[in-house]
Amino acid sequence: MKVTAQTTETSGEPGASAAAEPPPPPDWAWTLPDGPECARHARAALDGVLAALGLSAGERGDARLMVSELATNAHQHATAPGPHELWLTRGPAGELRCAVFDRDTAARLPGYSWTSGDCGRGLSIVRELSDGRWGVASAVARLGEPGPGKAVWFVIPRD
Length: 159
Prior knowledge:
Blueprint: E1 9-11, E2 28-32, H1 38-52, H2 57-77, E3 84-90, E4 96-102, H3 122-129, E5 134-140, E6 148-155
Antiparallel strand pairs: 1-5, 2-3, 3-4, 4-6, 5-6
Helix pairs in contact: 1-2, 2-3
């Protein structure tokens, strides 16, 4: 099923410029459970494909941590219930972009803080591990019932 959508894509950085390009169709897509097992399922699904693609243990470890943070945010902060989706897309020159989709139509991200105790550092981790190549885009569900939402994405840096 081909899905078209109008999106606004921004990096997660304040003041970032927006692009009018919709996220490309994923090469791999999984439904993520709506519950605390969302992050575990996302890590396992992503790691299996990345291992088959020959990514190093370090690259896979960073990707698992980033997708875990995004899946946890979808579970904890999305105002609309799941199920959520995990997308992996091959881009130019073998670039891999991973996204977690939720049905929260507000293309916003939870804030983060280095001083908020145990919570609030996940997006900072994603920013650092992706070399600043991450963001949020309005999107449409690709699996199950079509519907609007947002995709929070990151590029997996290669060694």
